[in-house]
Amino acid sequence: MNSNNKEEEKGVESRKDAVLFYPFQFLATVTTGLEWIAAEELKMKLKEEKITLNHSLLPSPSSSSSSLKDSINKNDNNNDNNNDPRDDSEVQVKETEVEKQILNEQKEEKDQNEERKRINSKDKKRKRTKQERKEHSKQIRIEATPEQRSLGLDQLESAASLFKEDDWENAMKIWKTFAQVTKGIKNLELLGSPIFRITAKSAGNHVFNSIELGQRLADSVVKRCPSWRPSAKQFELEISAYLRFDVLHLGFSVTDTSVSLSQVDPKRNLGVTALKPAIAYTMLHMAKIEPGEIVVDPMAGCGTIPQLGSSNFPLAIYFAGDVSDIAVEKSQQNQMEMDTKSAQNKTWNAPCQVVKWNGKRLPFASDSVDVIATDMPFGKRIGSKEGNVELYPAILREFNRVLKPTTGRAVILTQESRLIFNQASTDSWKLNRYFTINQGGLDVFLFLLFKHKNE
Length: 455
Description:
alpha/beta; seven-stranded mixed β-sheet; four-stranded mixed β-sheet; 13 helices; 11 strands
């Protein structure tokens, strides 16, 4: 070995993290505490090898990847053991491969950064809009005169009095049945004159707040049932009231906790847009799942829908999948934890297989699936409004392909109502019903579609 080679070997050994890939331009991976080599020194160093220095290809220490370093080290070791002249075509191929690898890694990192910025920007905008709505509602209440507030509450009490006596009695019968079991109340006289509480919530702009709403409704209940006594803390019957814009909903709580929420772990692995268990349960109930049916969630995320389905409708067969590796992994972990909990409690859950797939190319034969229940992307945190214009028709065509004719049905949650209505107007689908719900301050649509019979 000549003296130049010895000096070169010594220099590379002293800079173990700075490696030369001779068939291509100079590339380096640098760790903390290692100085950059001056450009002039590089030119002199590489002059003997007739290598052109391209400063634009020098990666920074923070962007240097381990995969690139391993690739360069591997080729450098090959160069040390082989001093024969290389074939020009082989050099060109290696140059192209490394260049593509660099560009792909840079593009991937850039895309990830842009996606993070886009999601953060949308989250800030959504929170800002939500805060502005709250401030606007608060301002309306502040500016309202006592006469306006009193008139609004009077109208509310009048609306509560419109509930039919039969509906009230039927609700009481159901509550009494549950109260004897869950609360241990055996005295029928006490059940006939319960201590109650009003839990009130509202959405929209009103001249009164939720506390005033609850108080006025409690007065209305006492007028209807004089033997009932209101109490905010010690109560036997909870009446839930929800005023959504100009529509009042009243209901009796028959359990202390949500049935749907009690069947999923609140500490489970959540996705970017985790679906509320109560909404997932509503979707499954809306599908009217029968024993032996095949139920599929093509965009399962963390798997809330199939998990609730396997526990509440355990005589069906469930499949869940997603295009995201992270989502599939979270769904699999949640399903395993749910199965473990079920085994400990000696309860039965239906089998559910979680796999990775593309919702536009589902691994099912045509006319083989009974139910599809899924939460489709809104184009806010995941995807975009522009992308949904192309995504929704392709997804709905695939749903229609795998569903059974006539009885095959799809329960879809989305904010893109226009895109669903467009597909429902075709000969492939029959729109059974739809309604709006409030999810995290957003008005979203829940659709029930049936597949038309094949001609």
